Amino acid sequence: MRFGILNEEDKHSILELINKVFEKSAVDIDLASNNYKFVGIKDNELLAVSMLTYIIDPIKNLKKMHIDYFCVNENYRGKGIGRMLFDEIEKLAISEGIDVLELTSNPRRESARRLYIDKGMILLDTNVFIKNIRQ
Predict the structure, then answer these.
(1) Strand (E) or helix (H) holding 72
(2) CATH number of the CATH domain containing 35
(3) pLDDT one-digit tens code per residue, 26-60
(4) Inter-residue contact 124 to 104 (CB < 8 Å)
C-alpha cells in the first residue's frame, strides 16, 4: 500500500469511490488545480481517497488545509486504512507548513467522527451555514 497525490490515471477510481460513499453523481473532476489536490492510498486499487483544499486566513495569519470527501472503500473498512490516510494527510500538512487541519463530518458518520476525535481533531460547538448560489 502506498499514499500519494492522485492524478489523471486515478480519476475514474476517485469518482467511483466518492460517488458511492457520498451518494453523489459527479462525472468529472479537474485534477490540475492549485487550490486543492486529491490524495489516496492505493494497492492494486484505490483503497481510500480525500480531497485537500488550501485556505489562507490573512486575519489570523494561518495556512489551513480543509479535508473533504474522506472515504475508504467499503471492502477495506475496519482495517486501519482510514487511520493510515489521516496520518499521511497530517504528515503532508506538516511538510507543507500548514497550521490548521479542518473538516466537517455528518453526525450520521459515527465511525468517521470517532476516527477524527481519536486523531486529535476537536469537535467545535458551531453550526455551518450554507447558501447555494448556483444550482
Answers:
(1) strand 62-72
(2) 3.40.630.30
(3) 999 999 888 999 999 999 999 999 999 999 999 99
(4) no
Backbone angles phi, psi at 104, to 5 degrees: -120, 150
* Phi, then psi, of 41 in degrees rounded to 5: -115, 125
Counted domains in the chain? 1
Residue 112 lies inside a defined structural domain of this protein: yes
Structural domain including 11 reads 2-118
Would 135 be classed as within a structural domain? no
pTM listed for this prediction: 0.91
Q: How far is CA 80 from CA 30, 43, 71, 84, 106, in A?
A: 29, 14, 12, 6, 21
Helix (H) or strand (E) holding 33: none
Nearest to 3 by CA among 111, 91, 103: 91
Residue 56 is assigned to a structural domain of this protein: yes
Write down the H helix ranges in 31-134: 81-95, 110-118
